[in-house]
Specification:
Strand content: 35-45%
Shape: elongated
Structural class: mainly beta
Number of strands: 14
Low-confidence stretches: 4-22
Distance between the termini: 33 Å
Strand order of the largest sheet: 13-12-9-10-11-8-7-14
Order of helices and strands: HEEHEEEHEEEEEEEEE
């Protein structure tokens, strides 16, 4: 290998290591929790996941402040959180939890960003379930300082496709996405069609204005890091609105 090739290889390795270290870097934020009867966030949020237990996110769901939510572009992303720098409220050893972004925490500009307006721009804030919050901090705390970082989403089973729509359009809710968890493009295909691009309706609901009833459906999902995964004949020809079908999973 020539000296030029060695030099190029060195800079590639150096650049890769810098990118990796940047991705793994802890950042500062704050966290609070919302009270639910079973300690979980189970209501439908701004990402459109519906019942979060059915979507497999359950108590490890979170609402993100304006800056982190970024107009929904982080729906499905996974964040590792740990409570830091508060000897009274943080649990000993600073244990961490991994949360999935499922909702938007709206700003309240009528309150100070330091007291009640936790999600005001440009604050970086996580609204957690009570059960998940209790794994990193004392529940008596109103708000705690945390550190967070994006992590790979570890999912059980394949990507899930929940069908809805009508005879005039097809809509699918996409959940349980591994890898970085964020979907940026979706295509659908029947035996009578080619690959049809779907448009984002809202959250992680995607649709196309084509009647696909009576056809087995395949889906192609693209994650935000650029990887694409095709799941063929996920929904059978007799698929029904409201039913969920499981495809392949990113490795």
């Amino acid at each position: 290998m020539g000296s030029l090739q060695v030099t190029v290889l060195y800079f590639i390795i150096l650049l890769t290591s810098k990118v990796t270290s940047k991705e793994e870097e802890w950042k500062s934020a704050t966290a609070t929790f919302t009270k639910e009867t079973d300690g979980s966030i189970i209501t439908e949020g701004a990402c459109g996941y519906g019942d979060l237990h059915k979507a497999s996110y359950g108590k490890y769901s979170a609402g993100l402040s304006t800056l982190l939510f970024n107009k929904g572009s982080n729906c499905g992303a996974c964040f590792e959180l740990r409570c830091v720098d508060h000897i009274l409220w943080c649990l000993q050893g600073s244990p961490s939890v991994v949360l999935t972004a499922t909702d938007f925490c709206p700003p309240n500009y009528g309150l100070s960003a330091d007291y009640g307006g936790w999600c005001n721009f440009p604050k970086q804030h996580f609204e957690m379930s009570e059960a998940a919050f209790a794994e990193i901090a004392e529940k008596r705390a109103d708000i705690v300082p945390v550190q967070y970082k994006r992590v790979k989403c570890e999912r059980r089973g394949g990507i899930r496709f929940t069908m809805s729509g009508s005879a005039h359009f097809c809509q699918v809710l996409i959940t349980n996405v591994g890898l970085d968890g964020v979907v940026v493009a979706v295509k659908v295909k029947g035996p009578k069609t080619g690959w049809i691009p779907m448009a984002r309706n809202w959250g992680q609901n995607w649709q196309c204005d084509i009647n696909l009833i009576g056809q087995p459906l395949s889906f192609e999902v693209t994650a935000s890091i650029g990887r694409t995964l095709a799941s063929y004949s996920v929904a059978p020809a007799n698929w029904q609105f409201g039913q969920t079908y499981e495809g392949k999973q990113f490795k």
